[in-house]
Every structure is written in structure tokens, then in C-alpha cells.
């Protein structure tokens, strides 16, 4: 029984660490690519609007990038190239200005 509770506790800590890293790297992206024309989503942790252009205010934004947490961290740290994430369907990008190549890696 103790092993199961230790695994749950470890999973909780790992999830909290993952959330912190995702939010940190999204904040760095916001600093490097200020604006509101592209929404970058890393569910379930966070989403930010970045890159100069037409500001989005309601409903589904016309330009969206979405990926999972581990892929986002790999992109941010340079462990994964943007084009490879798209090619392998680890990230999706639709709309104008969604090429994050000029901003990645963030480290």
C-alpha cells in the first residue's frame, strides 16, 4: 500500500514541476515575442498570446499553436526542432504567424 501512495506523491510532484516549466517557458516566449496575434496552448497547463499583429479578443483565435507539455519543453530547450514537431504531429499550428522558428529555442 505504501508503494502506491509514494507513486501518487511522486506523480504529483512531477506534474507540478512540469506545470512550472511549461509556464516558465511560455513566459519567456511572451517576453521574446510580444503581441496578441497567435495563441500558444499547452493544455492543461497554460495558454498565452504572442507575436505582433491583429489582436484577438473573442472566441477561437485565428492563429493557434497547440502542443503537449513535454513537446513544449523539448521545443523551448532546443531538444526538438519546430519543423520536426510539426512533421511528427507533436505540435499543430494553424493561421498566420504561427511559425515559431524565429523564437525557438528559448534557452
Structure description:
By secondary structure, the chain is an alpha+beta fold. It has 3 helices and 4 strands. The chain has helices at 2-32, 69-77, 82-87; strands at 38-42, 46-50, 64-67, 91-94. Strand 1 (38-42) and strand 2 form a beta hairpin. Helix 1 (2-32) packs across helix 2 (69-77). The longest helix has 31 residues, at 2-32. It is globular and about 40 Å long.
Attribute tags:
107 residues, 4-stranded mixed sheet, 43% helix, globular
Number of strands: 4
Mean pLDDT: 88
**Helicity level:** 40-55%
Q: How much strand?
A: 15-25%
Structural class: alpha+beta
Task: Name the overall outline.
Answer: globular
Strand order of the largest sheet: 2-1-3-4
How are the SSEs placed, and which strands pair?
Blueprint: H1 2-32, E1 38-42, E2 46-50, E3 64-67, H2 69-77, H3 82-87, E4 91-94
Parallel strand pairs: 1-3
Antiparallel strand pairs: 1-2, 3-4
Short description:
Helices cover 43% and strands 17% of the residues. The protein has 107 residues and is of the alpha+beta class. The model is unreliable at 4-9 (pLDDT under 50).
Amino acid at each position: 500500500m505504501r508503494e502506491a501512495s509514494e507513486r501518487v506523491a511522486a506523480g504529483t510532484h512531477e506534474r507540478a514541476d512540469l506545470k512550472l516549466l511549461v509556464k516558465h517557458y511560455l513566459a519567456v516566449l511572451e517576453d521574446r515575442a510580444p503581441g496578441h496575434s497567435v495563441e500558444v496552448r499547452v493544455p492543461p497547463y497554460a495558454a498565452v498570446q504572442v507575436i505582433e499583429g491583429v489582436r484577438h479578443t473573442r472566441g477561437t483565435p485565428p492563429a493557434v499553436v497547440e502542443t503537449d507539455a513535454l513537446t513544449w519543453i523539448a521545443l523551448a530547450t532546443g531538444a526538438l526542432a519546430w519543423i520536426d514537431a510539426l512533421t511528427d504531429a507533436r505540435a499543430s499550428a494553424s493561421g498566420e504567424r504561427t511559425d515559431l522558428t524565429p523564437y525557438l529555442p528559448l534557452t
